[in-house]
Design brief:
The chain is built from 6 helices and 12 strands. The chain is an alpha+beta fold. It has 2 domains: 215 residues, Bira Bifunctional Protein, Domain 2 (BirA Bifunctional Protein, domain 2), CATH 3.30.930.10; 43 residues, SH3 type barrels (Roll), CATH 2.30.30. Helix 3 crosses helix 5 and helix 3 crosses helix 6. The structure holds biotin (BTN).
């Protein structure tokens, strides 16, 4: 379903032509089969949030070609100019997976995003726990997972078509990292296809297969890192993620510490 909607979505800036074209090219089984595309929104997270409890079938996607108030983790702004792909997925997982499911779904989306980016670029993308996808030191995609009642909204911003001057120094795009580049709908499609596969595995098998797959993509496992949470800074060796999706650090004392949130920084130079 693309043109009819049970909820009152803003029709202003709705890009029906792109919506129809992207919907037609989707090869996913169910993620994105309910798709709404806008030329511009304040934030796809806010529009997705309005659909919760009304028009929130599993894998519904709100996509935008630009955002005026894109938001990232920790209250940061997410610059969302033309050329990037900005979208939010609505998911309704069983709630008995409890406290860590938002974080786990964020990591599942991170895994799918890394695999998606790898389809288009030659360098290896890395996941910086919890939700950044990097090429070298530069960010190519960022994720945000939020809970609203029993629904989880996963937002993803991918730098796709931007040139160097359109991005901050700490960011890169698929166009800058690949010869062939990628179209926005190809990115939406490949991401959705990987995301629905990993999400289905998580529903049937839990977090273990995701934890194993993440070992390949997580930046700096075994390396010295720091983790900042609020005003506290911890240093030690990265042990990757534990069975709940928390970041695991071996402190210099030998003790292990698990983090539900925080900012991880590598303490060794990154080869680019
Ligand atoms: C981060 O790196 O801090 C997360 C960035 C998440 C950005 C995406 S873009 C689509 C969705 N809408 C938003 O306002 N934010 C997310």
């Amino acid at each position: 379903m693309t043109l009819e909607s049970k909820a009152k979505l803003p029709n202003e800036n709705r890009d029906f032509d792109t919506e129809k074209r992207w919907h037609k090219s989707l090869t996913t089984e169910w993620f994105g089969q309910q798709l709404y595309v806008f030329s511009e929104l304040e934030s796809t997270m806010d529009v997705a949030s309005k659909l919760v409890g009304k028009d929130d079938s599993e894998g519904t996607v709100i996509a935008a070609l630009s955002q005026t108030r894109g938001r990232g983790r920790l209250g940061r702004q997410w610059v969302s100019s033309q050329g990037g792909l900005y979208f939010s997925y609505i998911l309704n997982p069983p709630i008995d997976k409890a406290a860590h499911e938002v974080a786990q779904i964020g990591l599942i989306a991170g895994l799918a995003a890394a695999e998606c980016v790898q389809t288009f670029v030659s360098s290896q993308p890395w996941i910086r726990w919890p939700n950044d996808v990097l090429i070298g030191k530069q960010k190519i995609a960022g994720l945000l997972a939020e809970r609203q009642a029993n629904t989880i909204i996963v937002g993803l911003g991918v730098n796709v078509l931007q040139d160097r001057q359109a991005l901050p120094d700490i960011a890169t795009s698929i166009k800058l990292e690949s010869k062939a580049g990628a179209s926005l709908d190809a990115v939406l499609n490949v991401f959705g296809a990987r995301f629905e596969i990993w999400y289905a595995r998580w529903l049937s098998e839990g977090f273990d297969p995701i934890q194993s797959a993440l070992r390949f993509w997580l930046q700096g496992v075994g390396d010295p890192v720091s983790v900042k949470t609020g005003n506290a800074l911890f240093e030690g060796q990265s042990l990757g993620v534990d069975g709940l999706g928390r970041f695991l650090l071996r402190l210099d004392t030998g003790q292990q510490k698990a983090f539900d949130q925080g900012e991880v920084t590598l303490l060794r130079p990154i080869e680019t």
